[in-house]
Amino acid sequence: MAKVDYYEILGVARDTDEKGLKVAFRKLAMQFHPDRNPGDHTAEAKFKEINEAYETLRDPQKRAAYDRFGHAAFEQGGPGAHGFSGDFASSMSDIFDDIFGEFMGGRRGQRPSGGGGRERGADLRYNMEITLEEAYAGKTAEVRVPTKIACDACSGTGAKPGSHPKVCTTCDGHGRVRAAQGFFSIERTCPTCGGRGEIITDPCEKCAGSGRVTQERTLQVSIPAGIEDGTRIRLSSEGEAGLRGGPAGDLYLFLSVKPHSLFQREGADIFCRVPISITTAALGGQFDVPTVDGGKTRVKVPEGTQTGKQFRLKSKGMPVLRSKEMGDMYIQVVVETPSKLSRRQRELLEEFEQVSSEENNPESAGFFARIRDFFGGA
Ligand SMILES: [Zn+2]
Ligand SMILES: [Zn+2]
């Protein structure tokens, strides 16, 4: 689709002031607003065009750039098809991307490239949050991606069925033109046809001439067991459809693992803090702890267990990605000091204190011995 001059779109003179632009924009926007023209794709395309023109001209910096370079200052795929980014800085970098081509990598896909305007589809990012249990077991996830696919009405050409695009006269169908910019002579995408080499005079109504329509696709993605937080899964060619026969982009699945209320994960190991009473710690005992596989396991605590003591449960951690190995689970006990004592409990503890000796408290005995050494010994 040929890019019409922004001033022409708004029907204003080139020296119109801000107020004149606004009045013209309002009038046209009212007329072509999608709410007023339900189902009318031509009006919708027109509405987008009006918006794009106004967004550019109302900004003095962009207007100056447009007056100087025309549409080339904001090169991108085509009007109507995509939202107008309107970012001048990124538009300039687009021009450089065009020069360096694929070298830049990570192409956003809404930019025309050489070769008759074939354009690679945009890469898509899909964020997914899974639980630790799901990361443990792995899962098959259903991913619903709204994506642009080739329009079936026009087979992706953008031209109304039965009509044919015309060869662009600005670039004679090459899609590229040479222009001097400062010291450089730069070959860049043809501003008239947006690099397609042809102009669609009769756009397809279904896709407004872009050749693509948005559709939700459902993909089955298998998430392997042991996946870590922040893992990125690349699904080759599952991104947006390319333009005019260009290759499809990729779909990137960004996985995050939800924090767990009981378990902390470090690599393949699982850590779990378990509070135990002073009596269990002193007398020894046993208790059940849940494991990440959904089961539970019994932990035996010997008498005289100190707070912070760790118990290792071999192979009760997370699976190691793409291997048969398993991490371990570590139980860290925290000895809990009793509170809200009854009179009877208090009596018992006081009595206990009276019959206690240094050897009942090995840690503090050692600590006070070190203090004595520090002050010169006794
Ligand atoms: Zn179409
Ligand atoms: Zn052209």
UniProtKB/TrEMBL annotation:
Record: residues binding Zn(2+) 2: C168, C171, C190, C193
Cofactor note: Binds 2 Zn(2+) ions per monomer.
Keywords: Chaperone, Cytoplasm, DNA replication, Metal-binding, Repeat, Stress response, Zinc, Zinc-finger
Subcellular location field: Cytoplasm
GO CC annotation, single: cytoplasm
UniProt KW Iron keyword: no
Residues annotated for Zn(2+) 1 binding in this entry: C151, C154, C204, C207
Domain CR-type residues, every copy: 138-216
ZnF CR-type: positions: 138-216
GO terms for biological process, alphabetical: DNA replication; protein refolding; response to heat
Domain J: 5-70
Pfam families: DnaJ (PF00226), DnaJ_C (PF01556), DnaJ_CXXCXGXG (PF00684)
Residues making up the signal peptide according to the UniProt record: none
PROSITE patterns: DNAJ_1, DNAJ_2, ZF_CR
Domain notes: The J domain is necessary and sufficient to stimulate DnaK ATPase activity. Zinc center 1 plays an important role in the autonomous, DnaK-independent chaperone activity of DnaJ. Zinc center 2 is essential for interaction with DnaK and for DnaJ activity.
Summary of the function given for this chain in its UniProt record: Participates actively in the response to hyperosmotic and heat shock by preventing the aggregation of stress-denatured proteins and by disaggregating proteins, also in an autonomous, DnaK-independent fashion. Unfolded proteins bind initially to DnaJ; upon interaction with the DnaJ-bound protein, DnaK hydrolyzes its bound ATP, resulting in the formation of a stable complex. GrpE releases ADP from DnaK; ATP binding to DnaK triggers the release of the substrate protein, thus completing the reaction cycle.
Quaternary structure and partners: Homodimer.
Family in the record: Belongs to the DnaJ family.
Protein name: Chaperone protein DnaJ
Organism of derivation: Kaistia hirudinis
